[in-house]
Amino acid sequence: MSSFxxxxxxxxxxxxxxxxxxxxxxxxxxxxxxxASSKVRRILDVACGTGGHTIPLxxxxxxxxxxxxSANMLSIARTKLALAGISDKVRVQKGDMRSLQGIGKFDxxxxxxxxxxYLPNLDETLRAFGAMREHVSNGGLLILDCWNGLAVxxxxxxxxxxxxxxxxxxxLRSASPRLDPLHDLCSVSYRVLIxxxxxxxxxxxELHSMRYFYPEEIRLLLKLAGFETVSLHPFLDPIRSAGxxxxxxxxxxxxx
Length: 256
Description:
alpha/beta; Rossmann fold; S-adenosyl-L-methionine-dependent methyltransferases; 2 domains; seven-stranded mixed β-sheet; four-stranded antiparallel β-sheet; globular
């Protein structure tokens, strides 16, 4: 399982400044109320990144354990928690979602921003789901989002360029995907260029390999791990059922 490098982590929040984490936390709270068997108080965020979901959830009164495989991302998360004045409300740990020993039980587990897709194969996905099942209370929830294989193979990924201007910097990120339908993987080669005015101040590349999943495949993997899937829907839209045109799907599973 890969983790983000130091340079990509440094510019991560600027690259995703358009991501509405508060809206996503509203969505998560809606799912808590709709599907959890009891009130959600303790949350495990297994791929917390720089704290995008962890921080607003802690500010809303939840007790959060924030884990990630990337020490670089966790360092940024700790700084943001301190600036928000809530370091005492969140535990931060470096760790792999496939190995969660000794961390206790939680009312809900989150695996957001398609992080489950970074695992290399289905055996490791099932291993991660099994570890999560061991640490969620009976009737508690696992909430995740992932790339929808039906949409990936129908729409197909294409080369994209994203331009971000923040803090006096211009960040250009090109994403060149390579689809491997035999193994349900999409490798994305990122090239990032940072300029300050006309001057180039940094340039680097990273390769991210993402697994996509089919709705019934996710349902089966969760069942094998001891979960009951209670909702598969377009991400942020739990009213509809996931379809061919929905690139990101959200899954809600209850511990059986």
